[in-house]
Design goal:
- With 261 residues, the protein is α+β, with helices and mostly antiparallel strands.
- It is 33% helix and 31% strand.
- The strands form four sheets. Strands 1-12-3-2-13-14 form a six-stranded antiparallel beta barrel. The chain has a four-stranded antiparallel beta sheet with strand order 4-11-9-6, with no helix packed on it.
- α2 packs antiparallel against α3.
- The protein starts with 9 loop residues before the first strand and ends with a strand.
C-alpha cells in the first residue's frame, strides 16, 4: 500500500445512486473523509498494487448567491438538498415598485419617439433648403440645435428604460449552473438591504460534482504520476461504493510536497 500525503484535489462525477442520497455527502458542513483508491503500476515488480489515500470531500464551485438591490422577499422556490437545473428560479423579490418604474420608462420612450422622428425630418429638410440657398445659416443652425436637443432627450429616455429593465431583472435570483442547493437563508416576507453588502440568500454548489483534498509526498507523487501516464483509472471509494475520478493536473505545493488538481 502507498499512502499519499500533499493537497490533492480531484473532481469526480458522482454515481447516479449517490444523487438519490444527498445526506451521504453531508457531514460537518458538507465535508467528510473519503478513501481514494489509485491503481498503481509497479514496473520493478511487474505487478499492479492499490495505493489508498485518505482525503476530504468538498463541494465543487461552492457559491453564495445574493441580489444587488434592496426589497422584500416575495417567494422562495427551493429548499436545502434540492438539485436544480441552470437558470432555475430560486428566490424572487416583490417587483411592484420596479414594474411601475419600468412602465414609466417605456411611456417616456414612446412619448419621445414621434418627437425624435420629427426633429430628424426637420433637420434633413433644413439641409435641403440650405443647399438650395432658401434657408439662412442661422435657421439651419437652429434646426440642428433643436434636433440635437431632442436626440439627447431620446437617448436619456432609452437609458432610463434600459436601467429599469436591468433593475427589474435583479428581483429574481436564478441558479448560475446545474446546482445542488446547500443552504437557504432567504425567508418569505423578509426585507433585505443591499446598501452596504448584499446578504447571502442561497448557497449552492455544482450538482453531481465534488472535490477531494489530500496530501502527497514526492515519492508518492512519482508513483501516482506513473498511474496517470499509464492511463489507469483513479477511483474514489465513498461508503463502500467506487466512482471514477477525473484528474485536472499535478503541481508543486509547499515544503517539497505536491498538489494534484
Amino acid at each position: 500500500m502507498y499512502w499519499l500525503a500533499a493537497p490533492l484535489i480531484l473532481l469526480q462525477r458522482l454515481h447516479p445512486r449517490h444523487r438519490e442520497k444527498p445526506h451521504e455527502f453531508q457531514s460537518s458542513k458538507y465535508a467528510q473523509v473519503l478513501c481514494l483508491a489509485a491503481f498503481v503500476l509497479l514496473f520493478a515488480a511487474q505487478t499492479v498494487q492499490a495505493a489508498e489515500l485518505p482525503a476530504t470531500l468538498m463541494w465543487a464551485d461552492r457559491t453564495a448567491l445574493s441580489l444587488p438591490i434592496s426589497g422584500q422577499i416575495q417567494d422562495v422556490y427551493v429548499r436545502a438538498g434540492q438539485t436544480v437545473p441552470s437558470g432555475s428560479l430560486l428566490v424572487s423579490l416583490d417587483a411592484r415598485r420596479l414594474d411601475a418604474r419600468l412602465a414609466e420608462a417605456r411611456a417616456g420612450v414612446k412619448a419621445l419617439e414621434r418627437k425624435h422622428a420629427e426633429a430628424q425630418r426637420e433637420a434633413k429638410r433644413a439641409d435641403e433648403l440650405y443647399a438650395r440657398t432658401v434657408l439662412s445659416n442661422v435657421e439651419l443652425e437652429k434646426a440642428h440645435i433643436e434636433q440635437q436637443k431632442i436626440e439627447g432627450e431620446y437617448q436619456q429616455a432609452l437609458a432610463r428604460l434600459k436601467l429599469a429593465e436591468v433593475e427589474r431583472g435583479y428581483t429574481q435570483l436564478k441558479a448560475p449552473y446545474n446546482a445542488r442547493v446547500l443552504q437557504v437563508m432567504a425567508r418569505t416576507g423578509e426585507s433585505i438591504s443591499a446598501s452596504m453588502q448584499a446578504p447571502t440568500l442561497v448557497e449552492v454548489a455544482r450538482a453531481n460534482t465534488v472535490g477531494a483534498v489530500a496530501i502527497l509526498k514526492p515519492n508518492e507523487a512519482r508513483t501516482l504520476n506513473q498511474v496517470l501516464k499509464s492511463g489507469m483509472p483513479l477511483t474514489i471509494d465513498v461508503e463502500g461504493q467506487r466512482v471514477v475520478a477525473t484528474v485536472v493536473g499535478l503541481e508543486s505545493w509547499r515544503d517539497g510536497d505536491y498538489r494534484l488538481v
